[in-house]
Amino acid sequence: MSLAAARVASVPRMPDTPEKGYFEADIPVNAVEEALRSVERIAAGGDAVAVEVAEGAPPPGEGDPALRAEVESLRAQLELSQAKARETLEKLKDQHERFLRAAADLENYRKRAQKEVADVQRFGIEKVLKDLLPTLDGLDRALATAKVGDPLAEGVRLVRATLEQALAKHGVKGFSAMGARFDSAAHEALMQVPTAAQPPGTVVLEHARGFTLHDRLLRPAMVGVAVAPPPDAGGASAGGDGLGS
Predict the structure, then answer these.
(1) How far is CA 68 from the centre of its chain?
(2) Cα 145–148–154 angle (5° rounding)?
(3) What is the mean pLDDT of residues 51-60?
(4) Is the terminal CB of the chain with fewer CB neighbours within 10 Å at N or C?
(5) pTM of the model
């Protein structure tokens, strides 16, 4: 028996005598059966469609060209972002290295500038001091030829001491080269002195003292340097003068 027949059979029959709460309607039996059959067809068709979708359709998104295109676009954007990040990092590293080099150059320039300022302060009066040294040399020669007890010599000695003290305040110091080995960095040889009394290369005469300015040579000492006497002058007296060639 069909679903429609079963449902029709199960419909209770209305009593012959109407009771309170009941009503009567003249509905043909074939109309009811047709309606039930329609409901069965619709239900059977919906289940078939659901089964077909469940068994034959691919998973959501799989094989979707639009989705694949979006994924590829996102992957390309990610790779581009990574490439730009690497490029930016390299630029930052290069700029950082250039900044360090510039900072080092600036620091070196600052140190050089400070040294130049200090040198100007220490050695800026070098030319003036050199011009005063011949005056000091003249006082030395005057004292070397003065007689013992000469009152004028005492006045010259006082002036010389005062001038030397003033020069010392500016960093000027005198030095003597007598008896020292000749040093071209601190001495200037004016002549050669043939003598056997001193080893060759020894300073045996000093025409003018040397001076330094803050440990820098201001003027070399003017000296005569001993050389071996010639073979035919074996009996010559020590200390004889001779102009060097």
Answers:
(1) 49
(2) 85
(3) 48
(4) C
(5) 0.52
Lowest mean pLDDT among 8-12, 160-164, 190-194: 8-12
- What is the spatial distance between Cα 211 and Cα 46, in angstroms, rounded to a whole number? 121
**Distance (Å, whole) CA 34 – CA 5:** 10
Please count the other Cβ atoms lying within 10 Å of the Cβ belonging to residue 208: 20
Is beta strand 221-227 parallel, antiparallel or unpaired with respect to 172-175? unpaired
Contact 112, 139 (CB under 8 A): no
Residue 173, Ramachandran bin (φ over 0: left; ψ between -120 and 50: alpha; else beta)? beta
Alpha carbon 181 to its chain's center? 48
Tallying the residues shown for the chain, one arrives at 245
Torsion, CA 14, CA 16, CA 21, CA 23, rounded to 10: 70
Higher-scoring residue by pLDDT: 166, 240:
166
To the nearest 10°, report the CA torsion of 142, 144, 146, 151: 80
Contact between 181 and 203 under an 8 Å Cβ cutoff? The reply is yes
Q: Is the pLDDT of residue 57 over 60?
A: no
Q: How far apart are CA 167 and CA 184, in angstroms?
A: 25
Q: Which CATH superfamily is domain 171-245 in?
A: Head domain of nucleotide exchange factor GrpE (2.30.22.10)
Q: In sequence order, which residues have a C-beta less than 8 Å from that of residue 126 and are 6 or more positions away?
A: 213, 218
Cα–Cα distance, 126 to 60 (Å, whole number): 95
State the average pLDDT over residues 2-27: 48
Residue 129's SS3 state is helix
CB 205 within 8 A of CB 230: no
